[in-house]
Amino acid sequence: MPTIPRVWLVAGGGWIGRAVQVAAQLATVRILTDGLGTVGYGAFAVLSSLAGWFALSDFSIAVTLQNYISERRAAELETDDLVFTAATLSLGAALLFAVVLLLAGPWLSNLLLDEFAVLSRSERTLAFYAIAFPSIGTALGGMAYKIWFAQHRGYLSNLLPAAGTVLGTVAVWLFMRSSPQQPLASTLFLYYAASALIPVLALTGIVLAAARHRFATDLLRPLLRRAARFWIFGVLAAAVLQVDYIIMAQVLQAADIVVYNVASKIFQLVFFVYNALLFALWPVCSEAIARGEWARVFALLRRNLVIGIAFTVLCGVGVGVLNGTIVSIVAPTLAEPLPMLVVILLTIYVAVRVWSDTFGMVLQSMNDLTPLLIALPIQAVLSAALQTLGASVAGLPGMIAGLTACFVLTVAWYLPWRCIRYARERTTIETERHAPFDLHPDV
């Protein structure tokens, strides 16, 4: 299949998968706000926000593998030895991370849920474990999704997580119908277990198919060296994107957490639609950059930025118009529509994310993490500081404004500048390298 149709096939699978996934998540909001109440669902939302941190438990070996597979595909080389070695490393990383969380669980759970006095210390710890261990499994099995993305079969990487989310939602719905006495830990485990089991089984099948290769010790150093840079980037990105619920748990009320959770899930669907296209373009950009086809890369960027930002604004208007209807369906316990200022601010935030994440994808696709490692520490500090300040001064709208500002002040201008500069440098080098042959074709 030609490259562009394959990209749209992957993106189309992503759109279907993400739409199903977010629809299931919104259904879960309705089920759990009715079953757990505002405070209980607030605790569920705070713990669920930790999934982004637990995704780091594979030490970024999966994303490193994806880029190596793309490079080998461009050179028409086999990849089974890479797959088997990387999967073995990822399993070891997951086991190590699980032991650390087992020991640190009681302390972390009480730190995060200190404001939820209705939960005992043992209930907090059990709820923490209920999301931590399935999330580690999801991170480990996620290597299968990265392999499929590198093979331009990313539609599988989008459809299977959607299936896991649907199964989790159904499990939670069936469980809540039994009127449990202490449902928080059980609902967390049931919701996230299917999302872990499916990719782990998929990765097992992939590894068994590559098992004719032994663990390649010569690949150990290059894999870990590149993975370390991706992992540091992941930690810094989590420090930017995964502190919102932690800050809210300390500063805002449970009702604000529920409002933010509902609104962000709606806009998450908008961003997921564009993000699916970015994941589909990642291996295409990796292969194009490896061949020096910069004109093609920037043509793709221009087209997709216009599509992404226009789609975001259109969806923001749609949410504003249908605000009351959406809330009455998703979370009727809120009793009133989402604040219009929250809707406007989240629309602006997603548009800024579309812009900055596009250029971040290009840098990651060519393994140039230096600009990200320069910008993200500054952005992480600004994220925590501006969100805390905004929440303290202006409540939930102030927190969203602070989160958006940390992007505008850092990566929204720095990453595009770095991409353009790198492309010009590489184009100049290639022109000079081939100039004698271009000028004297008979040589």
From TrEMBL:
GO cellular component term of the entry, any: plasma membrane
InterPro entries (UniProt xref): Poly_Biosynth_Transport (IPR050833)
Keywords: Cell membrane, Membrane, Transmembrane, Transmembrane helix
Broad class of the protein's primary localization: membrane
Membrane topology (UniProt): Multi-pass membrane protein
Localization per Swiss-Prot or TrEMBL: Cell membrane
Transmembrane segments: 40-61, 82-107, 127-148, 155-176, 188-210, 230-254, 266-284, 305-331, 337-356, 368-389, 395-416
Superkingdom to which the source organism belongs: Bacteria
Protein name in UniProt: Membrane protein involved in the export of O-antigen and teichoic acid
